[in-house]
Design goal:
Helices cover 31% and strands 24% of the residues. It contains 15 helices and 21 strands. The longest helix is centred in the middle third of the chain and has 16 residues. The radius of gyration is 22 Å and the shape is globular. It starts with 7 loop residues before the first strand and ends in a 7-residue tail after the last helix. It is an enzyme of class 6 (ligase).
């Protein structure tokens, strides 16, 4: 695969957050980029405005027959007609991870892996490097609110990459600095068991280049098996870690804290985004920046300017009467952090969570964890399971979560969500999930703000 000589490239699933970052990489280099996705979204409209040709029906008459390289996401089923056609006609067809491996082969690679926290840490790390003038190429799994993008380029031969564990994609990367945030069970449709998934994370650390560094959260399971010639342990506030936060407080809706290492510290770091878990994410990003030699004052300035990531503890309404937060959380531990952080920030407000489960297999495998986390709210509304790449599994539906949740709960259809919002009070409202629940963001915001809802 010689990426330097490609003039035409085609993406099957171009609207995916990881796929779109790579599509933007090629588009900025003047390559002809086109592709397919199942539905039009704000992101695909953005890509089209940037000059990419996108269609939304699986039709071999619409694909690019002159493409020199075809890239697909593992979320695309093997029955996809365009994918079958390209393979049958012996085009070079590769996964997104194969392309990312080639792109980063010659770069100093900073990868962020783990079952949660990786989008925030990778985006904040890339933001610090960009804001400070250090520079980097960024391939992110979320849309940075500072730049409204999930990709940016730089002449600096450094890349910050979100390392996706789904389909073992992250094992194709060979980082100079690897961050590891968590090893909780997930994607058991791929890995089978939690132990097998942990094996993959250990292999991720084994891929660190000679003399490279592992920055891992203190307290991970099987920590003694993690690899890396140099290891740094971070934590929210455990002083046994190499680097941690202390003197944590809230001022005017922002967090203030100090970051302490044995021979180095920063006072009064200001983080403008919510969620105490994001303090820990910031500590990880600061560890990377410090390792690269970025000045403490520049690190502080960058974090104070960080506007967060779309759909990561994102405030859509915030006033004395109403708070509405939207989040991508789709794993029990992510929901636990989201709900507990929101309740900590707004302890006097009744908390209502509208959650859309993502994948039948994940709902089945982690049902008890989902129920326990969602029960931290005062009230829960469950949407039907978003299938993504999966076919239905007999006996698996949102009702199995409802039966386990210990607070008032109901399962509602998507078409009933806005009517419920109009007729019920929800002083602290959270929408969460990785499916298409984000389609309700603007209508809900408009209802809560008393605006006319756009049709």
């Amino acid at each position: 695969m010689d990426l330097n000589n490609i003039q035409r490239i085609y993406f099957i699933g171009i609207g995916g957050i990881g796929m779109s970052a790579i599509a933007r990489f090629f588009n900025e280099k003047g390559v002809h980029v086109s592709g397919y996705d199942r539905t039009e979204t704000p992101l695909t409209r953005q890509l089209a405005e940037e000059g990419m040709q996108i269609h939304y029906s699986d039709d071999v008459n619409l694909l690019d027959k002159d493409a020199q390289l075809v890239v697909y996401t593992p979320a695309i089923p093997g029955t996809h007609e365009e994918l079958i056609w390209y393979r049958k006609n012996e085009y070079e067809v590769v996964k997104r991870s194969d392309v990312l491996q080639e792109i980063t082969k010659e770069l100093f690679a900073i990868t962020v892996g783990g079952t949660h926290g990786k989008t925030t840490i990778s985006t904040l790390t890339a933001h610090i490097l960009r804001h400070s003038g250090y520079g980097c190429n960024a391939f992110l799994g979320g849309i940075s609110a500072n730049y409204d993008r999930n990709f940016w380029s730089s002449d600096k031969q450094v890349a910050v990459i979100e390392a996706d564990e789904y389909d073992r994609s992250f094992l194709k990367l060979h980082p100079d600095i690897a961050v590891l945030t968590a090893m909780d069970a997930d994607h058991l449709d791929i890995y089978g068991t939690e132990a097998d998934m942990q094996d993959a994370f250990i292999q991720y650390t084994a891929n660190i280049k000679p003399n490279g560094t592992l920055i891992a959260k203190l307290g991970l399971p099987r920590a003694a098996e993690l690899k890396g010639d140099n290891k740094r342990w971070y934590h929210l506030k455990d002083a046994k870690a190499n680097i941690y936060a202390t003197n944590i407080r809230t001022v005017d809706g922002a967090y203030l804290f100090d970051v302490v290492e044995q021979d180095w510290h920063i006072h009064d770091v200001q983080l403008p985004i919510g969620g105490t878990h994001n303090i820990e994410n910031a500590v990880a990003a600061i560890t990377v920046a410090h390792l690269l030699g970025i000045d403490a004052a520049k690190i502080k300035a960058a974090i104070a300017d960080f506007k967060g990531i779309k759909r990561r503890f994102e405030y859509l309404v915030k006033n004395d009467y109403q708070v509405y937060i939207d989040d991508y959380a789709h794993h029990p531990e992510e929901l636990r952090a989201l709900i507990s952080s929101a309740r900590g920030l707004f302890p006097d407000k009744r908390c209502t969570v509208i959650f859309q489960p993502h994948l039948y297999s994940r709902t089945r495998d982690l049902a008890d964890g989902f129920a326990e986390s969602l029960s931290l709210a005062d009230e829960v509304l469950l949407l039907p399971i978003y299938p993504a790449r999966e076919l239905p599994i007999e006996g698996v539906h949102s009702e199995i979560l409802a039966e386990k949740i210990t607070v008032p709960v109901q399962v509602i259809q998507k078409e009933d969500v806005l009517a419920w919002i109009k007729s019920n009070s929800a002083p602290l409202l959270i929408t969460a999930g990785a499916g298409d629940i984000d389609q309700f963001r603007d209508p809900i915001r408009e209802i809560l703000n008393g605006e006319k809802v756009k049709e």
